[in-house]
Specification:
- The chain is built from 14 helices and nine strands.
- With about 375 residues, it is of the alpha/beta class.
- Strands 1-2-3-5-4-6-9-7-8 form a nine-stranded mixed β-sheet, sandwiched between helices.
């Protein structure tokens, strides 16, 4: 299996540009503190979060790829946010060469928001319950009910980050299309990224029998686009006819659980869809961004809001290699998230607001479709 082929090493002490999650530079690194606000405003104490991360962070031998092992049935992938340009990997000369700026920072903000939300009422075998903010059981931040060595009640998603610049490798392509030429450094980095994703998925399946992978990207479109691995041509024929195509979708695990064709379509772009829930959560955090596909009215006049694409075919995202590859089995679902720069990635506050909305969306979506109460998804303490 891919799990056995991956070689783990402890997180290196390297400059923060190569390890934004590493605790080795968290105390003094301005880059880290700009990405993750570790001020007193956060419920989850920085020391507990960093302790969890330090125990569960792994890299490849060259430190191009970073994996933080989580304990929730959620996997975050960040394939295009890196900036490393090692000479041992030749530059790509064709395809999309520009990276997705600030997507690592966006994913880290989401990582922290999910951890905060899912840890507020967590409980493990070595701890008493952690109260909500201000609860007498946990003090003002809940820290008093955490044992000094406990990480079991710090609940985080899995996250896999590529720190290589996209001009070196495109981690959202098959191997033969991901690099300019075959070299050991390039091939090993690609394989390690995908192996870490497989390890995370296997971990989720062994613990929870299901999971959801989010592949985080950036785009120039002023909407958050969700890619489910289904092309426009496959779903343009009509609502009912499109259901056969929807079964090829990267969220077919959720779709297969639906009783009727109408229910399947509702999960894809109806009120119970990821896009519809996400749109409502973004609105509640005052983030003015529409998500497609969803059941909400068009954010801009004439913008597609359902199965009728018309002249707006270009706004629908079919999804790339990662969601098709990792969401190909019924037991594991995957979604590609294309995020705009303006209002989402362009500031620390906006990234935190996005993360908060995403954390709330995941909680509701997974409870609704997987029967998972994320607040009860926790391993015993290490």
């Amino acid at each position: 299996s891919s799990s056995s082929s991956a070689s783990f090493s402890s997180v290196p002490v390297t400059p923060c540009i190569a390890c934004p999650l590493s605790p080795s530079c968290a105390a003094s690194c301005s880059h880290y503190n700009n990405v993750v606000d570790i001020s007193e405003e956060h419920f989850l104490s920085a020391s507990q979060l960093l302790k969890y991360v330090s125990r569960n962070t792994h890299t490849d031998s060259r430190h191009y790829i970073e994996y933080v092992r989580g304990n929730l049935p959620i996997v975050l992938l960040v394939p295009h946010g890196g900036h490393l340009r090692p000479d041992v990997i030749p530059d790509r000369t064709s395809g999309v060469l520009e990276g997705d700026d600030l997507t690592i920072e966006l994913a880290v903000a989401s990582f922290v928001a999910i951890a905060e939300r899912q840890s507020t009422m967590a409980k493990c075998s070595n701890c008493t319950s952690i109260g909500s903010r201000g609860d007498s059981r946990g003090g003002s931040h809940g820290d008093s009910s955490l044992s000094s060595d406990c990480t079991g009640c710090v609940k985080v998603p899995h996250i896999v980050i590529c720190h290589l610049d996209r001009i070196k490798l495109d981690m959202n392509r098959a191997l033969e299309d991901a690099r300019n030429e075959a070299t050991p450094a390039a091939d090993n980095a690609w394989l390690q990224f995908q192996n870490f994703a497989e390890i995370a998925k296997s971990d989720c399946l062994s613990q929870f029998n299901h999971g959801l992978l989010l592949d985080i990207h950036g785009s120039g479109v002023r909407k958050i686009q969700l890619g489910y691995g289904v092309a426009v041509s496959q779903i343009e024929q009509g609502l009912i006819d499109s259901v056969k195509s929807l079964m090829l979708c990267s969220i077919n695990g959720v779709l297969c659980a639906q009783k009727s064709d109408q229910d399947k379509c509702a999960v894809f772009c109806g009120p119970r869809s990821f896009g519809s829930i996400f749109t409502s959560k973004l609105e509640s955090t005052q983030v003015p961004c529409h998500v497609v596909p969803s059941s909400f009215p068009p954010y801009e006049e004439g913008y597609w809001g359902g199965f009728s694409f018309g002249k707006h075919k270009d706004v629908y995202l079919s999804g790339g290699f990662n969601v098709r590859y990792h969401g190909r089995f019924h037991e594991f679902d995957s979604v590609q998230l294309e995020t705009p720069m303006m209002g989402i990635r362009d500031s620390h506050v906006n990234r935190c607001n996005f993360g908060s909305a995403l954390a709330s969306t995941l909680n509701q979506f997974m409870s609704l479709h997987y029967g998972t109460d994320c607040c009860s998804c926790v391993r015993d303490c290490c």
